[in-house]
Amino acid sequence: MPKEKTRIATTGLIKRFDGKNALDGVDLEVRDGEILTLIGPSGSGKTLLLKTILGLVTPDAGEIEVGGEAVLSLSGAERDEYLKQFGILFQRSGLFDGMPVWENIGFRLLQKSGASRKEVREAAIEKLRAVGLSPDVCDLYPAELSGGMQKRVGIARALAGDPSILFLDEPTAGLDPIMSNVINDLILQNVRDLGSTVIAVTSNLVTARRISDRIAMLHEGRVVWCGDVDAVEQSDNPYLDQFWHKRKDGPIQMPVSSLTF
Ligand SMILES: Nc1ncnc2c1ncn2[C@@H]1O[C@H](COP(=O)(O)OP(=O)(O)OP(=O)(O)O)[C@@H](O)[C@H]1O
């Protein structure tokens, strides 16, 4: 069988804050066209890893290759070009309060020269349809939308411009189980249609199970397990076992101060 192509690779990625390694030698390979989901306890480095790949955070050591090219040394203009291949759903959807839905979705397209506002609006309506929302939503403001609709608009914005790589940070956080499943299916359908490569971050293990081809678990800034989603249940990795089955006891120690009663 031909070896699957690697789309994103990090090697020995280290990021220190206040003398502590928040990323502690992350080696990760994301294959072309797959959905890889990062799971792990709060503070394990999931969002930080996405930010580092995007160049929003500069690592202290390590390499990042995307499409076979080293990206850490890119200059300003090269970086702008590099970022065009990404669609990003931020935690809490990250919508701009002062912009109607269609401008939120078309934000990047509006900045591109050549596209008229009418064209961008049409493109935004098409993406609204792709996430199951009617064109009527176009002129509403984010505050007028439910949490589930905000997530859909966030996904529509991530999909605008048909990116070949999608980063989805907590796509179902704060949603009820039914809306979470609607969003899971929307993600799967759109990703399959586009053929994008996806890194998702989620604390929702139902979402992880539903959307992922592979799962990588982070703990204290390291990948402690990575494998096919179907292999999770059979794994005897103590970190994965504790996290996946939500066990209180195991190698993952939760700081008492972070527990709420
Ligand atoms: N800009 C920053 N300055 C200082 N520390 C940071 C910064 N960004 C991240 N960290 C630290 O890096 C660690 C990893 O953070 P990160 O946001 O990646 O966690 P996470 O796994 O996404 O957690 P959560 O599931 O709670 O969102 C944390 O200890 C965090 O406090």
UniProtKB/TrEMBL annotation:
Residues 8-245 form the ABC transporter domain. Keywords: ATP-binding, Nucleotide-binding, Transport. GO terms for molecular function: ATP binding. Signal peptide: none annotated. The keyword rRNA-binding does not apply. SMART domains: AAA. The keyword Mitochondrion does not apply. PANTHER family: PROTEIN TRIGALACTOSYLDIACYLGLYCEROL 3, CHLOROPLASTIC (PTHR43023:SF3). This is ABC transporter ATP-binding protein. It comes from Sneathiella chinensis. The lineage of its organism: Bacteria, Pseudomonadati, Pseudomonadota, Alphaproteobacteria, Sneathiellales.
